Amino acid sequence: MSDRPEVTAVEIARLAGVGRAAVSNWRRRHPDFPQPVGGTDASPAFALAEVESWLQGQGKIAELPVLERAWRQLETLRDPAGHPAAPLVPAGAFLLLLHREPEAWPALAAEPDTRLATALPRALAQAAARTFGTDGAARLGLPSLLGSTYLDLVRLLAELARPADAPPAGPAVGRATDSAAGPAAAFERLLTRHAEANTRQLSPTPPEAAGLLAGVAGPALTVHGATALDPAAGLGAVLLALPSAASRYGQDLDPVAAALALLRLALHTPAADPGPLPLDLRAGDSLRADAHPGLTVDAVLCQPPYNERDWGHDELQYDSRWPAGQLPPRGESELAWVLHCLAHTRPGGLAALLLPPTVASRRAGRRVRAELLRSGALRAVIALPAGAAPPYGVPLHLWVLRRPAPGDDFRQVLLLDAAPPQGAGEGGRDRVDWPELRATVTATWQAFDEAAATGRPVPADRPGTHRVMAAIDLLDDETDLSPARHVPPAAPAGDAPALAHLRGRLTELLAGLAEQDAALPEAGPARQPGHPPAVVTVGELIRSGALEVVSSGPGAPGRPAGHGAEGVPLLTDQDLITGNPPAAVTDPGDPGAPDAPVLTRAGDVLVPALGGGVARVVLPGGPLDGVALGRQLHLLRPDQALIDPEFLAGQLRSTALTRRAASHASTTARLDIRRVELPRLPPERQRVLGAAFARIAAFDTALHRAAALGRTLAQGLTDGLADGTLELPAGE
């Protein structure tokens, strides 16, 4: 048992509310900073007790937040040879007691420790039995005895789970601002904290992707008596996205993950619901040792493990789940999961899986894909943008299947390409427009699925987005089901009127560039050698009151904007660098979000914290006016009687200035905004230079816009001539 919890530099930064670079600076500048006790040279680990004592001695924290104190106690419960997440199970069991039987804890808390140590395990086992059935405690693997460390932990958890406006049940053990507004929120914070400390152990399906799977399943799961299964449940994200009215079944190879998922689902189910809850999550290998044999449900939804070589190929050769004896090849574990999910689906029921794109095209799996087409089971293959789910660099596919019912002779397949076209911008977890993606996928799928059920015509093909094909037309030597191979390109790429419009717009932009070029300042004579101009640092301007600076850390990405999403537009560093409007809105439900986000106003200057050469002035009524300050940004708010905003922004775009003020604690340059040096000039001269800087910035923006439009026009002309939709004029 570990009695000396350790923390990394990232975790120290979290405790003190600073960036990781600050911790590196403390180690260099303070000889008394605690020495590493473990880890590696690149990622050292420090004794938490020593770090906490040093931070308090330096006045950098008054006390350790409740969440961190609870995490410290969890770390002492961990067996170094056991599962890293195992201590979260008894912690979740206690939170379940608070959630389901809130009146039980105050009476238990009044007991002396000797009696509490025996009464609490019994109360947890009884709560688990009433919630999950008589074997509830065994399914969670709850210990029968709990030590004094666990008693300290549960007191912290009771405080962490306390709503912010509720008085503590006993002596306060932390700040009220550390409370998580309920047991479910407290458990989510512990899971997040565990994921941050064990980044390589877990890659859960994000809630947005889980919501997409639930959206594809449709309203059928909202009715009483509906059933759903996730045979690769992980931490239960997909089942959590389903309505609690549905009976939810699951299985996971990891027994600790299965127990945590069970607790998570119960904590998110209203406490008023009588137990036992319709939840049945079991541990075990779903392919080799199915925990739910013979079960068929309305919907099977999952993101199975990928690229497994040892999935049971040899011992499962004659399994009844393989149709027409089509045993999936050894290297096609994902197709084995597809057939497993289909076997658990009732006739007419739905199965939806997130799969790597290679499953649609690998030659080894063509026979299984062909059988899915011939039987009518495979209904849709949907290409998603990169960043939708882990691994985030891979643009996954969503496969949707229906188990054929007797008399079902529908044999058509929807191929939907929801990934952005090449050149439309880099993908990434924070760049996925989830409201738009979910609306496109669910609307198209539901229209297609309804047509299949009613016999009405299927949706008309939409170039660049989707195409409906007869299954027989997909059967060939490869049976490649990749949407990008079959969906025709968007019509504007080769549409003559659209290209003419683009050319006219480009002509206008180029003419405007010529006018802006004429307005650019002329290059005057070089400055003669002499005394350099006097300078003043941003730090000095802050101390004098002439400038206010607000800097944001890594922060949370918020929620995607659009489709009625509530919240304030949230600007990130990438939005600022690319010149795009905010792609997200603030999420008031985020426990780590501030109550009152910093909002921009006219005259502010915005600079990314990483990199350099970009600085934008907030104009009245412009796209940056009144937005929330997102992650990795500096906001500079000058006293405009003393500092001209355009002058300040122009100086911050200077190559030499940003190079001098950048630090290189990692492979990325970080702008140390307080070290930035500005020439000390009177306001009148600043305004003259600021106007010139503004004209240069406008020219640069127009130049980039014209370049992007020119590339689009060139690609459209190329595509049109290549596919024959455009003809050369006579004589050429």
Automatic annotation (TrEMBL):
Listed SUPFAM superfamilies: S-adenosyl-L-methionine-dependent methyltransferases
What InterPro entries would the database entry show?
DNA_methylase_A-5 (IPR003356), Restrct_endonuc_typeI_TRD_sf (IPR044946), SAM-dependent_MTases_sf (IPR029063), Type-I_RE_MTase_Subunit (IPR052916)
Q: Residue ranges of the DNA methylase adenine-specific domain?
A: 186-421
Q: Which GO terms describe its molecular function?
A: methyltransferase activity
Residues folding into a coiled coil are none
Q: Which UniProt keywords apply?
A: DNA-binding, Methyltransferase, Restriction system, Transferase
Biological processes annotated in GO: methylation
Q: Which domain of life is it from?
A: Bacteria
Q: What is a single Pfam family found in this protein's UniProt entry?
A: N6_Mtase
| Name of the molecule in the record | N-6 DNA methylase
